[in-house]
């Protein structure tokens, strides 16, 4: 987790953009509001559990799940 910094891109195992790191809070990655989605999710911070992080590659955090699945695992 110490390799994960603010403004890094979070991508799924398939390379699909999932979000942008706002900051680390405990064992979760807080994503920026601009990546919060649509409808009732819009304007809320979402979180990804660090257990989903597979690797940190340059300025990207790669998750172990593909983008479409990772989005369903986000917490508000």
UniProtKB/TrEMBL annotation:
UniProt cross-references to InterPro entries, sorted A to Z: DUF2171
Xref: Pfam families: DUF2171
Top-level taxonomic group: Bacteria
Record-given protein name: DUF2171 domain-containing protein
Organism: Bradyrhizobium erythrophlei
Higher taxonomy: Bacteria, Pseudomonadati, Pseudomonadota, Alphaproteobacteria, Hyphomicrobiales
